[in-house]
Amino acid sequence: MDNTEQRLVKVFETVFPDLTLDQIRAASQTTVATWDSVAAITLMNLMEEEFTIEIDFDRAAELASFSEILAYLRTL
Amino acid sequence: MKLSEALSIGQKAPQGGTSYPVLLACGFSPLHLQTFLRGHLQRVLPERTVEISTGLYGSLADTLEQLPAFSGEAVAVFIEWADLDPRLGYRSLGGWGSSSTSAEATLARLGNAIQSKPPSLRMVVSLPTLPLPPGFHTVSWQASAAELALESALAEFARKISLLPSVLVLNRQKLAPDAYDFRSDLNTGFPYSIKHTDLLAEAMAGLLTLPPPKKGLISDLDDTMWRGIVGEEGPDGVCWDLAGHAQMHGLYQQMLQALAGQGVLLAIASKNNAETAEKALQRPDFVLKRDKIFPAEIHWQPKSGSVARILKTWNIGADSVVFIDDSPMELEEVRAAHPGIECILFPKSDYPAAFAMLQKLRDLFGKPSLSEEDAFRLESIRNSQQFQEPVSGEQFLSSAEATITFEWNPPAEDTRILELVNKTNQFNLNGRRFTPAEWHQLTTAPGAFALAVSYQDKFGPLGKIAVVAGQETGSALNIEAWVMSCRAFSRRIEHQVLKQLFEKADRIQFAYQETPKNGPTKDFLKGESVLTRADFEAKCPPLYHRIENHHGQHRTALSESI
Questions:
Q1: Mean pLDDT in chain B?
Q2: pTM for the complete prediction?
Q3: B502-512: string of b/e by CB count within 10 Å (b at 16+)?
Q4: Which residues in chain A have their CB less than 8 angstroms from residue B2's CB?
Q5: Range of A41's domain?
Q6: Which CATH number fits domain B3-208: 3.30.499.10, 3.20.20.450, 3.40.50.1110, 2.60.40.10?
Q7: Which residues partner with B205 through β-bridges?
Q8: ipTM score of complex
Q9: Which of A19, A39, A23, A47 has the alpha carbon at shortest distance from B31?
Q10: A50 contacts in B (CB within 8 Å)?
Q11: Residue B385's pLDDT band (cuts 50, 70, 90)
Q12: Which tens digit of pLDDT belongs to each residue from B81-99?
């Protein structure tokens, strides 16, 4: 697990404290019941805080799973 | 606080602790504001479990109109311009601008809802923090008449609600300038930047959990009250004005004068020749009026001893006092001798630090409202010195022309009652502190009563100086709370209170509990938690007070029987 993934896991742990590491890595809006619109916004704001970035809200729909978000962060 | 910290604090709240239910009332999506408010409140109240509920999206007035049904402890109200008229926000496209009439109508509705809240429910209100939209005809650096009319209507609304019991209005000057997050508002309906949300939630949590204000300030003289050493430069050589490059000392005097006006006790602890220092204090251009200072300990003895004598004269604990000196060594000596005292280094030539100190003094001594007792606190302490004189004795007490007024079941709007209960340490039955809701519950239960005691004598009034609350159970009284201001000691008021209570019952049971500070209560009760009328009458010293009884509104068994 590289540094970016470790930091993203930390963000997910803050929003979804009940998930295990394996569940976080497999997490998506369809598999995590508590990943609602409020959780999605909170995830985005926490990622902005953690990685000192600004995420385009228009791309939010594309960031629907841990793996998609990780891939997005690696493009920055 | 970061968003991640706020979330973590909320998640680590104690399970099974006493809950602290708060209503967050706002017209927008509460989103992170809920998280930050919970985080800041949980940090201030670590023993309790903060529970935040939210109102209706898009209608602040509807939420506030539901308040009579809310059973929590506090309400945090966040008003934004769009709540007064959607045309003053960015999320509707009905055209910008608003008539002040429309906003005034909404403000009137909000005001009525706030006025209808239970008096004991604590409420803090944040006025609009976001800028008005650009839909006004003037350039942005010119305030248009329409904008000023809105500000004027808002100011009048704020002034009115600030006078209501248990309502505190947040000072907008404390907030960040970059409050608005346009992107977030349009995409999520949450209009605040994260930084602004953090500051706003912290300020509102601070207002909801205000610590008791400090009561007294002890100041040094040289290089603090004025610039220079009066023993070397003479009374006319020290300065505190712009001409002498010593304006911060003049502003400090001005701050102390303002504090004295709100009932803060002021004293001096200075190593100096008393006669020389007194001449400087008597200079006509001295900003702080000399008669606001009592006592003045000016000599060459250690300052810890001076502070001890001042505390004894004021009859308050070190943790209620601030000590200011320009010498770190003197501060350390006083701090070591008086744990709990707040020591502040006077910043002689550090302008930002001096400005910060003035702000800090405001926060340390700030109180939600002033009472008439604040106006004559110092005078009553001066007069109290005469009661402490051993030569006074019975003759002095009998000639004091004292009148004690007992107000049974005072109105809930009288904020002095709970203020006295929550800030009194020495004569305090058990040290218990109450929220407005808890006090309301205690004093309105079946058979319950509250008693407010006021005192005056030929030296002047002391105002309301004691409060008793309890319950009547058959021929006995259970006293749950009993406090008396230290200013009222040595007048046998506590004896007179018991005498009045024994007119209603043969036996009194006290919910006494020893605290680190309530020694005077322990001495008075002599460790007894039950007292009979016969025992009391056998031990009661002569009482010389004239008595007045007033009866309030609460319909309780006791008030109906008296």
A1: 87
A2: 0.66
A3: bebbebbbbeb
A4: 49
A5: 3-75
A6: 3.40.50.1110
A7: none
A8: 0.78
A9: A39
A10: 4
A11: low
A12: 999 998 888 877 766 666 6
